[in-house]
Amino acid sequence: MGAKDKKKDKKKVKSKCCRSTPRCKRCPVVVFQKAKEKAARKALKAQREREG
C-alpha cells in the first residue's frame, strides 16, 4: 500500500507532444495543465484553512 501505490499514479511524460486530437494523457501539455489545476486546488484549500 505504500510506495508501490504512489508509483502507479505517476505516469511517464513524453518528451514531445504528438499533437493528436484529443491529446493523449502522457502529453506534456496535458500533464502541465493537470499540475496547474492541482496547484490551484491546493492553494485554495490552504487559503480556506487560513481564513477559518
How much of the sequence is in beta strands?
Answer: under 5%
What does the main sheet amount to?
none
Order of helices and strands: HH
User: Structural class of the helices, strands and pairings?
Assistant: mainly alpha
Mean of the pLDDT scores? 86
Number of strands: 0
- Overall geometry: elongated
Q: Compute the number of helices.
A: 2
Describe this structure as you would to a colleague:
This protein is mostly helical and 52 residues long. It has helices spanning 3-9, 28-51. The longest helix has 24 residues, at 28-51. The chain is elongated and about 45 Å long. The mean pLDDT is 86.
Give the topology.
Layout: H1 3-9, H2 28-51
Quick recap:
It contains two helices and no strands. It is an all-alpha fold and 52 residues long.
Keywords:
2 helices; 60% helix; mainly alpha; 52 residues
